[in-house]
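REQUEST FORM: STRUCTURE PREDICTION
Request ID: SP-0412
Submitted by: Lab K.M.
Chain count: 1
Length (residues): 431
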Amino acid sequence: MRIEKLDQDTKKNLLEDLLKRSPNSYGKYEESVKEILDAVRERRDEALFEYTKKFDGADISADNILVTEEEVREAYEAVDQGLLEVIRKALVNIRVYHEKQMQYSWFDSKPDGTVLGQKVTALQRVGVYVPGGKAAYPSSVLMNVMPAKVAGVEEIIMVTPPGKDSRVTPTTLVAAKEAGVDKVYKAGGAQAIGALAYGTESIPKVDKIVGPGNIYVALAKKAVYGHVSIDSIAGPSEILVLADETANPRYAAADLLSQAEHDELASAILVTTSMELAGKVSEWTERFTKELSRGEIIQKSLDNYGHILVADSMEDAIEAANEIASEHLEIMTANPFEVMTKIRNAGAIFIGEYSSEPLGDYFAGPNHVLPTNGTAKFFSPLSVDDFIKKSSIISYSREALEKIHTDIERFAEAEHLTAHANSVRVRFDGK
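STATUS: Completed
RESULT:
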């Protein structure tokens, strides 16, 4: 990995480089996505089945698009029992963590008849997108479904691309069943997002779409926002390790590569106050890359978006971390909890040398659906909050309104909204 001195120029160049990875930079795909979405909106199932045949090579129809109970049973038979137990353990941790995020309706009443409050309601139907193909991501199923389940969403449906044999990856199906998905449909890509957003004869329209996908899925979610809600437009994976001279270089290198292996656009950054550590981490990344199965992808990721930045002070290092606002931030310093208090921008913060990033990906409980491309400055991880909505409650008695009605009328008239003022005045004009 390249080692650079941290200064204003390197930081500026790095931030500009990282932003090029945003889905917003891939406008050349938007026309293709629009064409797919328009077709699904107009021709519904017909277009959905055509695109599934074109892109996935699967013969899907109204007769087989919905995964059957028999297919689920076969998936359980195909999945290793040891993995099934791990999935169940992870689910407990994820459920318990998200249960602590629950919000409840509240009401505040006063003796004069004033009642104010907030009604919290779960979304009625949510769609979860899960990537398919060669890779299977049961962890994504758990992370996207469980907060919706905890929130009390009435119906959770999942879409995932089928294989050429018109079947869904067994681990994906098992994870969906364990997490409590109500229905699984064999559809992927932008066409599946269109089906969830607009509804077809087979797939019902949802209120919100969550889940990761390729650039076509990301741009499709962006395009349908407004017809439905979405979680976010996810970019490539990121990790930033913030370390001083006390950090274990072998651990730091291994953690950087855990994200670099995702794809060639993934970003792995070490910001440290120690030039000695920087050199050792660079050596370990080279050694590990030669040994790991996805070494070619890792190397391209490091060549494109891998950086080791050496800062003059921990204050400068922390400032850089806050400006980069990484999806995953690991703190490997002598006083990691003190450093954590100075972090403003990060999707998830991992504290101490034994809090490796994959702990959050799979098992600890906090959600691994996190803001990317600097959006941790204003976005949060996926949570129960994403699956509820709030309604304000207002109830006034005549006595309560009488005390303040002239104030409301004066306010409305100041804005030249006389019908607003009249709406209150008629209740007290004696007519």
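NOTES: The radius of gyration is 26 Å.
Reviewed by: T.R.
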